[in-house]
Amino acid sequence: MSKSDHVARARAVLAANDRGGYTVPTHGLYPFQWNWDSAFVAMGFATFDIDRALKELERLIEGQWDDGMIPHIIFHAPSDTYFPGPEVWGTKHRIPTSGITQPPVLAIALAEINARAGAEHHARIAALYRAALNNHRWWANARDPEGGGLVAILHNWESGRDNSPEWDRPFARVPETTTTAIRRRDTGHVDASMRPRDDDYRRYIHLVDAYRALNWDPALMWFKAPFKVADIGINAILLAAEESLLDLSRAYGSEPESREIETRIARQRAGIAGVWNAERGQFQSRDLIDGTKLDVVTSAGFLPLLTGAPSQAQAAEMAKAMRSIAADGAMLVPSTAPGQQGFESKRYWRGPVWAVVNWMLARGLFRHGETALADVILSDTRSGIERAGFCEYFDPLSREGLGGEGFSWTAAIYLLLAETSRTARPEAA
Ligand code: DGY
Questions:
Q1: Residue 352 pLDDT > 50, yes or no?
Q2: Is the pTM of this model over 0.85?
Q3: I want to staple 241 with a disulfide (CB 3.0 to 4.6 A). Which of 107, 130, 159, 372 is the partner?
Q4: CB 164 within 8 A of CB 335
Q5: Which residue from 160, 209, 170 is spatially nearest to 35, judged by alpha carbons?
Q6: Which of 26, 30, 37, 354 has the most ligand 1 atoms within 8 A of CB, as the residue to mutate?
Q7: What CA–CA distance (Å, rounded) separates 86 from 88?
Q8: Has residue 428 got a pLDDT over 50?
Q9: 374: Cβ–Cβ under 8 A, 6 or more apart, which residues?
């Protein structure tokens, strides 16, 4: 099959998952709009339809709460193929939503779309810029109230990397008791061996029950949270998003807003600089309840490459650490490095390779001049998708495609990769 056939198929995946201006991650398993999925999908649409790309983000921020939080799921229309649905979350927004958030890719996507958009789109981009600014203020106020420079997640689902072994220790503190009956639907769509375990689900729902009982009040959640982790993935993505927002502020915002964003960028860069693990050659998450480092080598630990936080020496160390994972025979970049405690090659975020993470890592490697490694990651991702289809993720050892099929964000990344190198190499744009 030629590249243009794959491009046509990728567009067909997006069309099949389009539910009217927003895109479900995949039919059945994820039947609503998911926050970070949508941001990647918008970038995919931007390769051929700017109007539809902006629409994706506009539908996402229909779910934005008045305090700026953008929920991880927007329940635009009912579906009974997913648990936990809106009745379990019990939130009070105009449209039913979940009560927690997800990695804030929005401003990164918006800057990418802006770089391709003509003047006729600027009013819509300006409105989305404002939504992203409010969202970044929410992150600072609600999730770093003491101003330490690292934001916290209060639920594993916020990381987007639900069952990463990084969370095993802090998550073990969360009780398995729930007031909500658990009716898993995910294992009806995807083999249970590729999904989180039942005890994980009991804890996920314990957290939902606990925060719902606090009416999703951010200050109360902060004080009562039994799970509070500075996820390195989210901190890297937020900082990259702030850097994108700073660029956008110069065209769509004001001078004071640019200064406000610069202040947050300086604080967040310092926060990330403080969690460097020289022995592992990567940055790592922190448990904010007992202050310990979560010493697991994950793909997320390399995501600070997306930002200006790493020094040149640290960027080189990260590239070296990735090359040594490849030298051991793994497809780059496994969500958890093979050999790490808790690694499982087929189970969701405990090992599998995800195209969206690879795209971010390659972009970060280009930024820091590690172009050869970035090219390897991009070409392996592209050929993996051409071989396995628009699967949810890849087994890093066997390289087979796993999880759900017809995945929107995998299709979106394929569209970005199939283009010229301009999106992966932003400096060449
Ligand atoms: C799920 O249900 O698997 C999601 O990751 C939670 O958003």
A1: yes
A2: yes
A3: 107
A4: yes
A5: 160
A6: 30
A7: 5
A8: no
A9: 361, 362, 363, 365, 366, 424, 425
